[in-house]
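dude i think i finally got it to work??
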Amino acid sequence: MAVTTMVLRSKGTLISAGVLLVTIVSVTFLLNTGSHKIDMEMSQQDTLRMKPQEHYFERNLSHYNPSEVLLPYTENTPDTVHVLWCGLKWFEFKHFLSLLSIMKVQQPSKVIIHYWDDNKVLRDRNDYNLWYSQLLDEYYNIVTRSRGPTAPDCENNTIMMENVLDILKNGGIYVNDTIVLTHHLHHLRKLPFSVGVTNKNVPVTFKTLAYLVAKKGEATSEKLQSLRGDDFSSSCAVSDSLEKTNTLPSVLPTCILIQRNIIPAKIMETKDALSQVVRLIYYGSTKVKLPDWSMDDPIPNIGHMVLLGGYEMNLLSYLSIRSMIHCVGAEAMYIYIDVEPKGQWYEKLKAEEPRAVFVYHEWPGTVFGHPISDGSHASDLMRFDLLYRFGGIYVDWDAVMLRPLGHLKGYGFVTNFDWPDWHPPYPDVINNGVSAGKKGSEFLRKSLMKFRSYNPKGDWYYMGLMMPYKLYEQYPELVKIERKLQVICYMLKCHPVFLPGYHNEKIHHLNGASFDWKEVYAFHWTQPSPPELLNMTLLQTAKGMFADVGRYVLSCDRKKTLASLVGSHQL
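look at this
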């Protein structure tokens, strides 16, 4: 049902603020000889009218009038916000947004998260939903408080409302954990009692309660249950209908009810009004989040590969190094070793490719004092470190490059999603087996700093695949996700992430996911290596895409590659 939201003015005039599907309404009480009446006086700020190109967050967030917040003792509802956590569930992004909006918009002196010992925040097995710990790490004035060993029935409206009223018996502000504030509630702290709900047409229940602001002793069940229909005045609204319009209302609701979980990836570049508000809360701007680009200081045209632990070089690793020198036109390809490689392909490289430079590099024994015992962890650390210190293109030994990066060299860091859906609830993970970055890239610096919390006994793929994705969610302006950077082939089946349904294992190049391999930048065979790329005789005679790719790499010539770059003004 469409409901027109309104804002009360001092003479009772109703001002239309837009049409939304679900409405939160606010009722304010002034106790007078045992009766109550609706307060008709609200500050001009409550209309939330914006100047062109200026959002009220940007205008008011850091510019509160102290008189709005620092109330005299006799008028003071405590400036403490209470959140009630109940149920065995993850602390998802929608809950994070709710708390983040409280911290940024309300800016309370303290937030108390109330919980029961057997209903603490759950962690998913892959540590995607780390929003709760992120909040506790970033805000010094968020505290947690147990309400006892055993949680009540979290679906029981009566019991849960009793807990809210008990929490507010000494006064304060309660906010539902799925409510996002878009305007502070400090003006309501001057009043004895103020309620926001999600449906004015039904009695107030725990499920319909959006926020409650009350002085000591004012929040009672009797007052809540006495509210009906016309007792409410519409002062804020919320709706998923914000997703249906690209126009951010000039008069915003006081709060937004997030009825389903959302994730950062879904709001980075979408233009609907809800995404704009979420971006404003999470990133500090309504603008679409796009990666920074500049060719003033491009990614250096050098390559890096890590081959620690002793290695008999095979044909595929030879092709990988050759592809960087001849297909990309790299000035140099640095291969980091602690033991000299062996085999005919190593000897061939030494004899024919002076741009292939083998650099001695010790095993990185520790990182921030944590011992490193896994080769994958060492490789993850080294690729971040090498690209951060020198810039360039990193390739795993089982990946081959097909063409230069071109305009991609203007981004601070370039990488790609991995294809499998093996790490729920992660929407995606990142595979840096082929990646590139500018020297001093901020994304790479932040990736290195994440090793402060490195767990040597943790899953090998967390630091390499999951952690970079979490950073991408936080700082999308620092990284370019180029879906054609590499096509990952697992069990000899290639899964291009630029095609629909790429998470589905059954969708691959042999089963409908066909593509022009010459349009991608690289191929990466994670497991196993194709037989035709391990034997030169087989490579020369085999048919199929893998053999075509291998023969193409052998045909690349550095001089021709550089000449084509000059002709296209990419050098």
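The radius of gyration is 29 Å.
im so relieved honestly
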